[in-house]
Specification:
Elements (H helix, E strand, L loop, with lengths): L5 E5 L13 H10 L7 E2 L3 H7 L3 H16 L1 E8 L9 H13 L3 E5 L19 H8 L5 E5 L2 H10 L16 H7 L3
Helix pairs in contact: 2-3, 3-4, 4-5
């Protein structure tokens, strides 16, 4: 049995090799925020993902690595931006494996909505990849929906795991009191 202590980060690389032209910039922001605090993030380089789209054997190698990393994770941070729902390969695979096989909660963090608090996750459903939307609809996903803000992300990473799922099933949110503690209200 795997020791599940990592946080898995998933995002849409948009098939680009320029790391500033996709959501990898948000992953790098997370890394920067935690450069000295020891927070453990698991990551597959998006440059490898781009090449794998064209090479079936390489794609399977990456999926095997994704599974191994997800098996060792206590939760998943899913960075959701305007193009995340367009991803048709790795993000849907990561969501499906995280929910269906690993039973880990998803910390859905939104980058470009303009929200500093999220009170109605259904209002953001147009941003959801189909793999997430279907699992929220069928009740298999445990999801906390938060803005892309360090305090909210840090709290969710520390609070939620395969042993401690968010309340609200697929539509979990933080209270106004929590947002006040984060300094967002």
């Amino acid at each position: 049995m795997a020791y599940r202590n990592g946080t898995y980060i998933a995002f849409h690389a948009e098939g680009k090799t320029d790391p500033t032209a996709s959501d990898i910039k948000y992953y790098r922001t997370l890394k920067m925020w935690h450069a000295s605090d020891g927070t453990d993030f698991k990551f597959v380089n998006s440059h490898d993902k781009v090449a794998a789209v064209r090479d079936g054997s390489k794609a399977e190698t990456i999926k095997r690595s994704l599974r191994e990393r997800l098996d060792n994770s206590k939760n998943m941070v899913l960075i959701i931006g305007p193009t995340t729902k367009l991803d048709t390969d790795f993000v849907p695979y990561e969501i499906a494996y995280a929910v269906d096989r690993c039973g880990i909660p998803i910390i859905a963090t939104y980058t470009s909505t303009g929200y500093t608090v999220i009170r109605e996750p259904k209002a953001l459903s147009a941003w959801w990849p189909a793999a997430l939307s279907s699992r929220i609809a069928n009740g298999t996903a445990s999801v906390i929906h938060i803005p892309f803000k360090q305090a909210a992300i840090d709290c969710a990473i520390g609070q939620f795991s395969h042993n401690s799922l968010p309340l609200g099933g697929g539509l979990g949110i933080y209270s106004d009191a929590a947002y006040r503690e984060f300094g967002l209200l």
